[in-house]
Amino acid sequence: GNRELVDAPPPLPRHFVLIVSQTNLPDYYRVWLDLANNLTHLIETRKLRDLVHKMPVLDPHLLSNHRELRLAHLALGFITMGYVWQEGHHAPAQILPKALAWPFWQVSCRLGLPPILTYADTVLANWKLKDPSGNMDLIFSFPGGESCKGFFIVSLLVEMAASSGIRGALEVMRAMKISDLIGIQKGLVKVTQSLKKMKETFKLMHRKFKLTPDNPMLPRGLVYEGLSDEPILLSGGSAAQSSAIQCFDALLCIRHEDETGKGAFLTRMRDYMPPAHRQLIETLSVSPSLRDFILSHSSSDLCQAFNACVSALVDLRSYHLNTVTKYIIVPGNQAPAMGCPLRGVGTVLNTRGTGGSSLMVFLKGVRNATQKTLISERQSVSRESEM
Ligand code: HEM
Q1: Domain assignment present for 2
Q2: Ligand 1 atom with the shortest distance to the CA of 202
Q3: Is residue 3 in some structural domain?
């Protein structure tokens, strides 16, 4: 099972095992699932584009619920990525045929997601249980075999480790409303533990997973036939679209806005998240500031709990930075042209030609902004003396 991929997969929480993922659509959509299920083979034998050209334009109206829509988005997103990149880096498709573009667009509108493969597709919606003991498998895969699978499954395990932290964040907000200092502290401890678990889980990412998570150049974007004559530029799936980390940033009042555009990039990534996730981040961001609350209540326990939480997020980002260095920046460790195409049709941060320096500046900037949110002894003491 997943044991081949990861050293010691953590057991799945019970509530997770009880969720059965959607893997089927009404029979009318069989052609989508046939293509998506055989994607690796169809890309490797270069048959996918021809089959897409023969595909009928299906009406997405028979998709009746959220889960079917998410599965359809995932399938159409995979087929789209395969279609665009079938011939490799140097010959990406510029026009998405109507049989793909039209239903993908409609499904995306109903979900409030962009018509491109997102992190919410490849990581959050692309798993199924392989056996009752909780081993997971992907629903759809790209060429790139175990690397591709390992990358998605480990990302999913990291997200699962974040779930108790999201609950902790909500507990903090609730406790703050009624000035329950112990409640805030308990919630923060939960978030800290979750961030530590995320980092531990992240370590399951093997160096042998070779992939290109950055976006290759498709500077002119993609024309969605029948929908827009102008090419549309969208970002590729990236863990920067993970809503969990942005929720923690919002809770801990970590601000990334500055002249380098980091904040704008991270805010833009919210457009690639499911609307309910985006909404939660926005609600947390406009809530009264937890940091100011803590500064105004001279409780050293609370200060410590807050700082432990921020430090755990700094640690997670430092670990991520090191991983990125090993995967992307270190020369000679470039992924093969047709690795795992977790790619978009626009550029996010151009790592090519700069030796990855702009990427490192970005990631370090994000980490440093996190660090700056720590409450220093001087700040807490000066507030105390004001009181
Ligand atoms: C080998 C594994 C990974 C690599 C090579 C990698 C690479 C990158 C790159 C290149 C970026 C810059 C933004 C972009 O180009 O889209 C980024 C950002 C980001 N990644 Fe990863 N990533 C990996 C795994 C993960 C995992 C498992 C997570 C956890 C969910 C994660 C969370 C993030 C976040 C939150 C950002 C936005 C910057 C921030 O908020 O700190 N990454 N990553």
Answers
A1: no
A2: 27
A3: no
In a domain, 7, yes or no: no
- Tell me which residue has its CA closest to atom 17 in ligand 1: 240
Number of domains making up the chain: 1
Q: How far is the CA of 321 from the centre of ligand 1 (A)?
A: 8
Q: Which of 58-67, 348-357, 368-377 has the lowest mean pLDDT?
A: 348-357
* pLDDT per residue as tens digits for the range 56-102: 999 999 999 999 999 999 999 999 999 998 888 778 899 999 999 99
Nearest CA to ligand 1 atom 37: 240
Residue 243 lies in a domain: yes
Distance 239 CA to ligand 1 centre (A): 5
Helix axes 243-251, 300-324, angle to 10 degrees: 150
Q: Are 12 and 55 in contact (CB under 8 A)?
A: no
Domain of 117, in residue numbers: 12-387
CA 387 – CA 382 distance, rounded (Å): 9
Task: Judge contact between 227 and 101, C-beta under 8 A.
Answer: yes
* pLDDT single digits (tens) 272-284: 999 999 999 999 9
Alpha helices in 223-344, H assignment, sequence order: 243-251, 262-269, 275-286, 290-296, 300-324
